[in-house]
Write a structure and sequence with these properties.
The chain is α+β, with helices and mostly antiparallel strands. The chain has three helices and four strands, in the order H-H-E-E-E-E-H. Strands 1-2-3-4 form a four-stranded antiparallel β-sheet, with helices on one face.
Length: about 160
C-alpha cells in the first residue's frame, strides 16, 4: 500500500511540475509577444513613420535652437544700440506761450519752444511778437543750460520739457 501511495504521490508531483512548466511557458510566450510589440513601437519611434530618424530630427532642432540663440543675441545688441541712439534724438518738445508785453493787450502770441534729448541737449526757440513785427531767437542748450542768457519763459519751457518722461 505504501508503494501505491508513493506512486500516487510521485504522479501528483509530476502533474504539478508539468502544470508549473506549462504556466511558465505561457508566461514566457506572453512576455515575448509584448516585448515584440514594444520593439516594433521603439523602432517606429526611432525611425519615424515617414522614414526620418528621430535622432537626426533632434540634432536638427538643436542646431536651429543654437542659430536662434545667436540671432537673439544679435537682435539684443541691435536693440541696445537703438536705445542709445534714441537718447540722443531731440524727441522732447514743449511750447510755452505767453504775452511778452503784459500791459499791451492780453494775447499770448509770443512763445518759447524747447526741443531737447534725454540728456537735456538741444535748442530753445523764442518768438517775441509785437504789433509791428516778430523777433525769433534760437539758443543752444547743453545739459539744460545755455551759454546765452535765458528769459524766465525760456527757462519755463526748458523745465516743462525736462519733466516729460
Amino acid at each position: 500500500m505504501t508503494d501505491m501511495m508513493d506512486v500516487s504521490l510521485e504522479m501528483w508531483l509530476m502533474i504539478g511540475a508539468l502544470g508549473i512548466a506549462i504556466i511558465s511557458l505561457l508566461l514566457v510566450i506572453i512576455v515575448w509577444a509584448k516585448m515584440s510589440g514594444m520593439r516594433k513601437k521603439y523602432k517606429a519611434l526611432l525611425n519615424g513613420t515617414s522614414g526620418e530618424n528621430i535622432e537626426e530630427l533632434l540634432i536638427g532642432i538643436q542646431q536651429q535652437l543654437s542659430t536662434q540663440i545667436e540671432q537673439g543675441s544679435l537682435l539684443k545688441n541691435d536693440v541696445t544700440q537703438i536705445q542709445q541712439a534714441m537718447k540722443l534724438m531731440k524727441s522732447k518738445v514743449n511750447i510755452h506761450r505767453y504775452s511778452a508785453f503784459g500791459d499791451i493787450g492780453s494775447s499770448d502770441l509770443s512763445f518759447s519752444i524747447s526741443i531737447l534729448d534725454d540728456m537735456a541737449n538741444g535748442v530753445v526757440l523764442t518768438g517775441i511778437h509785437s504789433r509791428e513785427q516778430t523777433y525769433i531767437y534760437a539758443k543752444p542748450i547743453q545739459n539744460g543750460v545755455s551759454t546765452y542768457t535765458l528769459s524766465p519763459e525760456e527757462k519755463e519751457a526748458i523745465n516743462r520739457t525736462m519733466q516729460q518722461g
